[in-house]
Amino acid sequence: MIITVTGHSGSGKSTLALMLSVKLNLTLIDVDEIVDGMYNDKSMQQNLKTAFGDVIESEDGKIEKRLVSKIVLNNKQHWDTLNYLTWNYLETQIDKRLKACNNNAIIDYKFIPVTKYFEIANYNILVEAKNDKLREKHLIKRDKIDKYVVAKRDSFSPNYKRHEFSFVVLNNYTKDFVGICESLI
Questions:
Q1: What is the pLDDT of residue 153?
Q2: 8 A C-beta contact, residue 95 and residue 31
Q3: DSSP summary character for residue 96
């Protein structure tokens, strides 16, 4: 069984995905972890450096995700280039993990609706903020970013069409959210 969990950054998708994986004894595939690992892949580092130059390197010569984000969030063409360069790597890693667990997994990823996984999943779950200002406040605190960066991130998110999902879960940013997740499970 494949279940996808998606939503805007800070919506609570990772909280729900982790709860589902534990309660249903399914492998959790956190695509953000795969993205983080991608920055340690020598081939990907070279591709990123070729595309974006030295400005994405820290003082010690490492490619840094935050520096890449700074560039791509300010330029749609750079965003498209990043996706072109990285999607094959991400898809290969997700496919390997799905194969290793016999397709019994929860996939946690913001961009699920624009991937093949949305079509092959048994269930697709959307997590939304009941109040977007609370989500913004949560992101500012969690990621140490400002409103501008939150808005930029959101502008690159897919268009989540509620009617295309098996379930829609609303996060009210209180302790009730865990109860809401448990009742879905």
A1: 86
A2: no
A3: H
